[in-house]
Write a structure and sequence with these properties.
It is a single chain. Strands 3, 4, 5, 6, 7, 8, 13, 15, 16 and 19 form a ten-stranded mixed β-sheet that branches. Strands 9-10-11-12-20-18-17-14 form an eight-stranded antiparallel β-sheet, with no helix packed on it. A hairpin with a 4-residue loop joins strand 3 (354-359) and strand 4 (364-369). The radius of gyration is 28 Å and the shape is globular. It is of the alpha+beta class and 570 residues long. The protein folds into three domains: 1-15 and 228-352, no CATH class; 35-219, no CATH class; 354-428 and 457-569. It is 32% helix and 21% strand. The protein is built from 13 helices and 20 strands. Helix 2 (37-56) crosses helix 3, helix 7 (187-203) packs antiparallel against helix 8 and helix 11 (298-308) runs antiparallel to helix 12.
Length: 570
C-alpha cells in the first residue's frame, strides 16, 4: 500500500471517537460511516479474496461436503471453510463492500457454518489435517477469529444475519466446551485458548471460561529479560502472543498483561533489517531464517501507540505501512471490531537506526548503521548475516571435514570489547579393543558401546571466529588450531536474484562459486556488497559432515587447517 494512503489517516477527523476501553469488542455503530480511507481500501481488498473463496466453495446440495472450502491441496478442512465466514463478516458489515448486507453472501456463510458444525467433533474440537486431530489449540485459533465474524455479522443489521448467527453460535459454544478442558502443545497455545475464551466470554459470559483463563495465566507469561517469548518466533508466534495478550488484557481488564507486550515490542525495534524485514535467525519454530516482514506486528503497535500515545510505536506503524502495508489486511476483523483503532496515530518519533544491541537470552547480537546491518547468531550453523539495503548476505557458515562433524556452531557469542567471539572445540578419537570381560559372545558391535572402549590418537580441532565492526562494514577472522591438513571452507550464502562478480563458477554446480583471490561483489538492484580477500586452495565444497548447500548463490573460500583468514564486508 502506498505511504500517502496511510498518511491521510492522520488528517481524518475522528476526534469524536470513544477513547480506548477495556471492552473485548469496543465499537460504536454510529461511526460506521466514518471509516478512514485505509480501512475502506482493506475492505475492498477483502472483497477480492472473498470472491476467490466463494468460487471454490462446494455448492452442490447433494454433496455431503456442501458449504465446505478446499485448501490448495484440494482438501476440505475447517480452516479454509471458516475463512469464508471471517471474510464474509467483514464484508456484510462494511458499507464500502460490494457484499454489504448481502443476503446471497449470508446464505453462503450459513452453508459454511453448517459444514463446520458437521465436521466438529462431539467434544467440540476440530482437526488441523496437516498435523493435529481433536485439537483444542486449533479450535482456539478458529474461535478467536470466528467470534469477531459473529460480532461483525450481528452489527451488520442485515435482514438475513440470524441465518448465520444461529449455527455459528452453536459451533462456538460447542468449541467453548472443548476450550475449558482441553490441552495444548506449545507455549503460545495457552494464550490462544485463553484469548478465544476471552472472546467467548465477551459474547456469552461464563465463569468456567474465566476460571480456565486464570488457570493458564497462573503459569505466568513466558518472556525473558531480552523481551522475547519462549519460542523466539519473531515472524509468527511472538506477534501472535502480543495480539493474544492484548485480547485477554482488554477483555478481562488485566492491563498488567500489556507490560509483556510492550517489552516485546520494544525489543522488536532492534530486530528490523534496513529493508523492513524482520530478523528471524534465532527462532525456535518453523519461521527460523524465513524471509518475513512486519505486518503481523501492526495491530499491537497500533493498539499501544494509541493507548500509550507512544510516538515510537507510531513510527513503527508508519514503517510497516511503507514496507508491508499490502499485508495488514489479514487482521481487518481486529480493526473493524474495535473502532478506537481508527483514531489518528500520534506524531511518529525517530526509530533506532544506528546501534549495537546484544540479546544474550536469544544468543543474538544486532549491529545496525542505517542502511547496513549485521546479525551474529549463537547455536546456529548460520552464525552471521549482512545486509546493505536490498543486497543480502543471508548467511555465513564454516565447515571442515574433521571426522564428519566439522560444521561450525558456537554455543554463545562472547562480547570482548568491540570484538565478538564464537568458538568450537571438537575431538576425533579412535577406539581400542573392548574390555575382555565385557565382550559380547555373539560379537554384536551394538552391544559393545564406544563409551566403554579406551580412546587413543585423539585428534583435536578448535575453531575461533572473531567478528568486529569496521568503518565500512564488518570483518570476520577465522582461526583454527589443532589437527593439520583438514580441508575447510567458508561459505557465503547470498539471496537469489542478485549478480555476483569477481568469482569463479564451480564446474558442474548449479550456483556455487569460489573467490580465489581479491574482492568479489554481489549486487541487487542499486545496492552492492563487496567481500574479500578470497582464498581458494581446493575445490571440495561438499565436505563430509558439512550441511548440504542451500538453494542460493553461494561463494566458497577454501583452505586447509591450520586455517587462518580474514574477510571483510562493505
Amino acid at each position: 500500500m502506498k505511504r500517502r494512503t496511510f498518511i491521510n489517516i492522520g488528517g481524518t477527523s475522528l476526534c469524536a471517537l470513544p477513547v480506548l476501553t477495556s471492552s473485548v469488542f469496543a465499537f460504536d455503530n454510529k461511526y460506521i460511516s466514518t471509516m478512514p480511507p485505509w480501512i475502506v481500501e482493506l475492505v475492498k481488498r477483502n472483497d477480492t479474496g472473498l470472491d476467490n473463496l466463494l468460487k471454490i466453495q462446494v455448492q452442490n446440495p447433494a454433496s455431503p461436503d456442501l458449504g465446505g472450502v478446499p485448501d490448495s491441496f484440494d482438501i476440505l478442512n475447517p480452516q479454509s471453510t471458516s475463512a469464508i465466514i471471517q471474510a464474509g463478516g467483514v464484508a456484510v458489515f462494511s458499507p464500502d463492500s460490494k457484499y454489504y448486507q448481502s443476503a446471497e453472501l449470508l446464505e453462503r456463510m450459513k452453508l459454511a457454518a453448517l459444514y463446520l458444525l458437521k465436521i466438529q467433533h462431539s467434544d467440540g474440537t476440530i482437526d488441523l489435517l496437516s498435523t493435529n486431530f481433536h485439537s483444542t489449540p486449533d479450535t482456539g485459533f478458529l474461535v478467536k477469529r470466528l467470534t469477531m465474524a459473529y460480532v461483525l455479522t450481528e452489527r451488520s443489521q442485515a435482514a438475513e444475519a440470524n441465518t448465520v448467527l444461529g449455527p455459528l453460535k452453536k459451533f462456538l459454544l460447542n468449541a467453548g466446551e472443548a476450550l475449558i478442558v482441553g490441552g495444548v502443545h506449545t507455549p503460545n497455545h495457552r494464550w490462544v485458548v485463553s484469548a478465544a475464551l476471552t472472546k467467548l466470554n465477551g459474547l456469552w459470559p461464563d465463569t468456567r471460561y474465566v476460571d480456565r483463563i486464570n488457570e493458564w495465566l497462573g503459569e505466568n507469561i513466558d518472556i525473558d529479560a531480552d523481551g522475547q517469548y519462549n519460542e523466539k518466533s519473531t515472524f509468527i508466534y511472538s506477534s501472535l502472543t502480543d495480539r493474544l495478550l492484548i485480547t485477554i488484557a482488554a477483555g478481562l481488564n488485566k492491563p498488567e498483561l500489556l507490560e509483556h507486550v510492550r517489552k516485546n515490542l520494544n525489543m522488536t525495534l532492534y530486530y528490523v533489517h534496513p529493508n523492513g524485514e524482520i530478523v528471524t535467525d534465532a527462532s525456535g519454530r518453523q519461521d527460523k531464517a524465513l524471509i518475513g516482514t512486519l505486518e503481523n506486528y501492526y495491530y499491537p503497535y497500533r493498539y499501544l501507540a494509541l493507548l500509550d500515545k507512544n510516538q515510537t510505536y507510531a513510527a513503527m506503524c508508519r514503517l510497516i505501512e511503507e514496507t508491508a502495508g499490502n499485508k495488514i489486511g489479514y487482521f481487518l476483523d481486529y480493526y473493524l471490531t474495535d473502532s478506537t483503532l481508527w483514531e489518528p496515530l500520534p506524531p511518529p518519533a525517530a526509530l533506532p537506526l544506528s546501534y549495537v544491541k546484544a540479546f544474550p537470552y536469544s544468543g543474538l547480537v544486532r549491529i545496525r548503521r542505517n542502511r547496513r546491518d549485521a546479525t551474529l547468531i549463537a547455536k546456529n550453523p548460520v552464525w552471521f548475516t549482512f545486509m546493505k539495503g536490498n543486497a543480502v548476505l543471508q548467511g555465513v557458515r564454516f565447515a571442515s571435514s574433521f571426522f564428519g562433524k566439522g560444521q561450525f556452531q558456537s554455543d554463545e557469542v562472547k562480547v570482548n570489547g568491540n570484538v565478538y567471539e564464537l568458538t568450537q572445540k571438537l575431538e576425533g578419537p579412535y577406539w581400542q579393543p573392548y574390555p575382555k570381560d565385557a565382550i559380547d559372545p555373539g560379537g554384536d558391535w551394538e552391544k559393545m558401546p564406544k563409551v566403554n572402549r579406551p580412546q587413543s590418537e585423539v585428534q583435536l580441532l578448535e575453531t575461533n571466529i572473531r567478528i568486529k565492526e569496521t568503518k565500512e562494514g564488518m570483518e570476520i577472522e577465522v582461526i583454527t588450531n589443532g589437527t593439520e591438513r583438514v580441508p575447510a571452507a567458508l561459505e557465503l550464502i547470498f539471496r537469489p536474484g542478485g549478480e555476483l562478480k569477481g568469482v569463479v563458477k564451480v564446474d558442474g554446480s548449479k550456483d556455487s562459486w569460489i573467490l580465489k583471490e581479491g574482492t568479489g561483489t554481489y549486487t541487487f538492484g542499486s545496492d552492492t556488497i563487496s567481500f574479500g580477500p578470497g582464498t581458494g586452495l581446493h575445490k571440495n565444497i561438499a565436505l563430509r559432515g558439512a550441511l548440504p548447500p542451500m538453494d542460493a548463490p553461494t561463494v566458497f573460500l577454501t583452505g586447509f587447517t591450520p586455517f587462518k583468514h580474514t574477510i571483510r564486508f562493505s
